[in-house]
Amino acid sequence: MPQPFQRVLLKVSGEAIRSNSPHDTVDEAVVDRIAAEIAAAHHDLGTHFALVLGGGNIWRGAVGVAAGMNQTDADNMGMLATVINALAFKDALRRHGYEPRVMSGLEIHRVCEPWIAERGRRHLEKGRVVICAAGIGEPDFTTDTAAVQRAIELEIPVLFKGTHNVDGVYSADPHQHPDAKLYDKLSYAEALERRLGVMDATAFTKAEKRQLPIRIFNIAVAGNIRRAAAGEAIGTYMS
């Protein structure tokens, strides 16, 4: 019988909460559903959550660089985009009765706390959800790498990566290759060797070094957050 995790770090990509409306960037209904699932898992299973948010629904640094923008400026814009998403989750989680704290790798004292690992661990001990924004506060690092780093610093034993359009890690793009294989389990070395591209190499290397397992699943499927928190074998397990 699987046992619920006591602590997890959930990485939510910006694409997972992208609005279909050309006038909006954040789909508030999706954010509310994810927040409700997180709060329910915390209440029912006793799982304590930390979150790392991407910002791709608002801005992608790679797009700016491709257009000729300075890399640092483009990445800083991306980090600020994650702060906007973090504040959206803060509001939604509070409405569902789960007390959040937004902690930013960039110092923005008017809207969130600065990132201090010890303080983040203390928030978790008090039953609060820690929302980690602005990546690690430095350019040239993805939010996947930030998710691994924050999980390590918060002493969280597992990382959940919520995808928005696939059920886990496949041997090829399942939308273009219907016969692509869904992996139940995968090592970091295999993912790098096969160039599966589910996370960047820095994140994989750091996770492997610190022996941090990662479960990748479709966050768009209602109930998957709870299933993963309960220890069910959904999606792909990487170790």
Describe this structure as you would to a colleague:
- With about 240 residues, this protein is an alpha/beta fold.
- Helices cover about 40% and strands about 15% of the residues.
- The protein is built from 8 helices and 9 strands.
- Strands 4-3-5-2-1-6-8-9-7 form a 9-stranded mixed beta sheet, sandwiched between helices.
- Helix 1 crosses helix 3.
- The longest helix has 25 residues.
- It is globular and about 50 Å long.
H/E element order = EHEHHEEHEHEEHHEHE
Total helical segments: 8
Biggest sheet, strands in spatial order? 4-3-5-2-1-6-8-9-7
General form: globular
Largest sheet: 9 strands, mixed
The N- and C-terminal alpha carbons lie at a distance of: 21 Å
Compute the gyration radius: what is it?
17 Å
Low-confidence stretches: none
Integer average pLDDT: 93
- SSE class: alpha/beta
Give the strand content. Answer: 15-25%
Question: Would you count the extended β strands for me?
Answer: 9
The share of residues in helices is: 25-40%
Features of the shown structure:
8 helices; 239 residues; alpha/beta
